[in-house]
Amino acid sequence: MPENKKENVITLEPSTIETIDMAVFEFVNEEMDLHTTTNRGFKKVPVIWVSAERAFQSKRSKEMRDKEGALILPLISVERAGFEKDPTRKGPAWAHLPPVDDTKGGAFTITRQIKQDKTSNFANADTARARGQINFPRKNEKIVYETISIPLPVSINVNYIIKLRAEYQQQMNDLIQPFVTKTGNINHFMLNKDGHRYEGFIDGSFSSNSNVEEMGEDERMYETEINIRVLGHLVGEGPNQEKPKVVRRENAVEVKIPRERTILTDDDLDFL
């Protein structure tokens, strides 16, 4: 490909359940980026995903415990509590759009643009036939459009539980306060992942408990639970979808019917 020629590449990652999970995890781990004072200084608080694979979870479990097997605090965990399909949220489409009944599928148009090269070829060909040259100015009626579509996005509501665990009350205060103040006087925030945007809402009620009053031999722990609801959407059937996730189509600008020639014999002429 010549260096001065630019290829128009459209990259679209599908929105899956994992995409929404990662958006929430990265929001807590990277955007919130919580730190507090520990016995090792002012450190970033580790964030873990509760439902990790068993092998990965076992490895992380060793890293999060000391030599006596006690959990190293502070610690933040993220867990998906469940989700529901929400037909009342119409999103970009206010009605059900069935996929196109062909081998490609696709139901929801996300972009439409002119194919400059093919449109120019039709214009030059028509001009050459009519004027004998290709650059004569004239109105072009044959415009080729490229339409890109995807499966219809399906709206879902996903609930997450964020658990904050700390050894000291001051550590817990450091972790809770950003969740209260980051969104200002509203509970709404935005999540982004792979080009998709989701709406998140932090529940204003934080449930807290501790084992300080028990005076037992167990390790001291303060725990606060924060509920987050995410308005997300899913695109396609994931790895179980046979048809392509992103469909490109071009319109037809002219239809040509080939001329049929019939060879008649003498017997045919006599019949006529």
Task: Itemize the secondary structure elements and their pairings.
Layout: H1 17-32, E1 35-38, E2 41-44, E3 47-49, H2 54-63, E4 75-85, E5 108-114, H3 116-131, E6 145-150, E7 154-166, H4 169-181, E8 188-193, E9 196-202, E10 207-210, E11 222-234, E12 247-250, H5 266-271
Parallel strand pairs: 3-4
Antiparallel strand pairs: 1-2, 4-7, 5-6, 6-12, 7-11, 8-9, 9-11, 10-11
CATH fold node name of the largest domain: STM4215-like
Shape, per Cα inertia axes: elongated
Helix content: 10-25%
Structural class: alpha+beta
Instruction: Kindly report the average pLDDT value.
Output: 82
Q: CATH homologous superfamily of the largest domain, by name?
A: Myoviridae tail sheath stabiliser
- How many strands, what sense, and barrel or not for the largest sheet? 7 strands, mixed
Number of domains: 2
> Proportion of β residues?
25-35%
- Counted beta strands: 12
Helix count equals: 5
CATH architecture of the largest domain: 2-Layer Sandwich
Low-confidence stretches: 1-8
Radius of gyration: 31 Å
N-C termini distance: 60 Å
Q: Please give the CATH class of the largest domain.
A: Alpha Beta
Order of helices and strands: HEEEHEEHEEHEEEEEH
